[in-house]
């Protein structure tokens, strides 16, 4: 397992940022279920994530063996508190300059600098891979995430109308955002 970074947060807690490993399967399931409950800005309805332990292990193995994707884990005192995944959009040669990313942090740990630290790793990985542009979509109401992305230099370049439809029948739009890397 590769540790990328160890950081002391504002409140003194130690955050380890590392590559995912198979042993993380249960911790990752717990994280994903929790964040789906805690925010309406992610891709799934509460309770919708239903990978078994075996399926999650297979998914992690795939990530670990892939050259063009990586899943970073943020861990505090042995608990997975955040994840950030980034990967080349497709392996066709014409797309190798583009990567897309996703990030989530447990609510209890918001505003401690964890998102920013994971974004740094994600951007460093892109630069090492020669990625020229990092792309994402974000719900237009997700001001916290948008503010973070804009601080990293991401720009909005369009809006996907009704990108999400919630179980109560309402919709959310998403901004397309892009960061051009040096
Ligand atoms: C968006 C998210 C990843 C930010 O993670 P975080 O660990 O709270 O972020 P940080 O503490 O590193 O803060 C990074 C930036 O976020 C913004 N931010 C943090 N707390 C904020 C708050 N209370 N109000 C507004 N913006 C805030 C700020 O721009 C901040 O930059 P600063 O530290 O220079 O002020 C986290 O809130 C999250 O997981 N949200 C739910 C899932 C999600 O929305 N993911 C993104 C989907 S596109």
UniProtKB/TrEMBL annotation:
<dbReference type="InterPro" id="IPR000182">
    <property type="entry name" value="GNAT_dom"/>
</dbReference>
<dbReference type="GO" id="GO:0016747">
    <property type="term" value="F:acyltransferase activity, transferring groups other than amino-acyl groups"/>
</dbReference>
<feature type="domain" description="N-acetyltransferase">
    <location>
        <begin position="15"/>
        <end position="182"/>
    </location>
</feature>
<dbReference type="InterPro" id="IPR016181">
    <property type="entry name" value="Acyl_CoA_acyltransferase"/>
</dbReference>
<protein>
    <submittedName>
        <fullName>N-acetyltransferase</fullName>
    </submittedName>
</protein>
<dbReference type="Pfam" id="PF00583">
    <property type="entry name" value="Acetyltransf_1"/>
</dbReference>
């Amino acid at each position: 397992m590769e540790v990328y970074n160890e950081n002391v947060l504002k409140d003194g807690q130690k955050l380890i940022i590392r590559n995912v490993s198979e042993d993380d399967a249960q911790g990752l399931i717990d994280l994903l279920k929790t964040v789906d409950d805690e925010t309406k800005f992610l891709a799934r309805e509460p309770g919708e994530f239903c990978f078994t332990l075996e399926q999650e292990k297979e998914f992690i193995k795939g990530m670990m063996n892939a050259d063009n994707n990586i899943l970073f884990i943020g861990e505090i005192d042995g608990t997975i508190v955040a994840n950030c995944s980034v990967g080349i959009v497709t392996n066709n040669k014409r797309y190798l300059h583009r990567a897309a990313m996703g990030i989530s942090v447990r609510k209890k740990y918001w505003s401690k600098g964890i998102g920013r630290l994971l974004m740094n790793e994600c951007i460093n990985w892109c630069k090492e891979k020669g990625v020229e542009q990092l792309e994402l979509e974000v719900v237009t109401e997700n001001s916290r995430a948008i503010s973070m992305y804009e601080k990293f230099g991401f720009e909005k370049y369009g809006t996907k109308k009704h990108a999400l439809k919630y179980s109560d029948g309402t919709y959310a739009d998403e901004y397309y955002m892009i960061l051009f890397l040096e």
